[in-house]
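Review box. Two proteins, two foldings.
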Amino acid sequence: MSEESQTFEAVRIAAPKYESPAPQAVAFLDVALITAIFILLSSSFVMAPGFGIDLGGEAISIPESLPDAPLDASAVNSSVSVLNVRGNSMIIFEGKIYSPESFAKEMKTYKGEGTLLLKLDKGVDSQTFLHICQLAKAAGFSRAQLAAKPAEY
């Protein structure tokens, strides 16, 4: 081989141009914002004015007076079941309508946990209220929240 055949040609390699990280940061912020919106819309916020009843002890503990502030978020467990009572004859629980007798049978087999939110109308007597609290305690609920709103004059 001669020296003439061994000549090399210079190869130019272009260095990559510097790209601004701004478009990548904007895309990340978009994804973070969309994720935050989905988290906020899928979570459940419970505003339960009224007063709480502790069902966990041997006796049902009913506070002596209504609190001035709404229920503390730490007092409500993550699991909340809603019970509507209209008069002394109609109980609405988990989309079904019960009589007091059929509701008592249902609660014997129901496995409850967390907080039971009680929405009672003004026609519910105290005997029915206490009976529902006893049934909720037997079903496994640790707390009941009696929903109440201030009277409008």
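Next protein.
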Amino acid sequence: MKKPLFTLAGKAIHGKHLGTKLGFPTANIAYEAAPMPQDGVYIATAHIPGEDRTYLAILNQGVHPTAPEGRPTVEAHLLDYQGGELYGQAMTFHYQQFLRPEQKFPSLEALQAQLTKDGAAARTWAQQNALPHDFEGEAMSQSIQCPVEVKDTSYQYDGDSPQAVDHLSMCLDKGSFVAVLGHNGSGKSTLAKLMNALYLPTEGQVLICGMDTADDDRLWDVRRHAGMVFQNPDNQIVATVVREDVAFGLENLGIPQPEMIPRIDAALNAVHMTDFAYAAPHMLSGGQKQRVAVAGVLAMEQDVMILDEATAMLDPSGRAEVLQTARKLNRDKGITVVWITHFMEEAAQADRVIVLSQGAIAMDGTPGEVFSRVKEIQALGLDVPPMAELARELREAGMDLPQGILTVQDMVKELKATLCQSK
């Protein structure tokens, strides 16, 4: 999908009674007077704050029958909207395509017939542009169970070098927290850049929310849905004030200021950096800088967050801060998190662990399943969480401990149970 023609932020208000007779949700959108596109009927996408889906909409800009006199308004028809009353609700519309000029109709029936045609045209447009929503009453973000799908993908830096990623395939479930492990040169960072379309596959395909990263026309959309946090926060902080840095991505997306402000506030609050909103980034600790970087990605309301060794340069306290923030966003907002790390204790907190070796998947499973294979992990040049290693040694010494012990709390619980049984 190309960049929107225009973005309009406003509030739904009551119009004339005709709007209640059209057979689907209709609202007049009041906005502050500003230069507008030419009058006419547009296909648009609509966003309601607090909802995690996008609606397909038909916008009627100009002189329309339901508009209150004396107010600059746009008539909006939200297709598939099943919520409550919209009046008083803030909304944002992205004009996507001019549909037809405005026209008068001889009867209400004629108007309804035209609106039916407009709705069909909008759905056809949505399908042709492979939007990340199916607009059939359920968001595609709900129906797409694999927002990250890697299909038999390879990447080679040059013709003489070995494959950095070698015919790798995987599907990451929506809302999952996936840790990716591997020794240096295993392909972790290359895979991250493939997911964000910084690199394009030399073979195979990478899909983000159903969009092919190799499609030049979808590059902007891919990066709107998949955000990346790099290892060194200093390399991605661009402003001299924290709040302005968080706003940077939104400005690039063309988000209007009335919508930007609450999104910036919410992002800073989510990473517990509200008190530092007007601080200079260079005065922050490493962990705080990285949380600002996470806030910048979060404000863009992306479906996938890729963190490429984002805690590698931080002290233990900073690592804990960033991991806790990412885990909370994953649980509270359903963001799919790809956590690339070489810290085993971080990977132990994931839902799923993928271990790479020579650009291919060597292991894939829950943390308990993967880290119970201690000798195999070590043969790949990696460590395991200390409690997993201790549990292995105790089992070899004859103690009956289950697999999947990863934390001190797990160890204490299982030791108590085992010792009580032996009495």
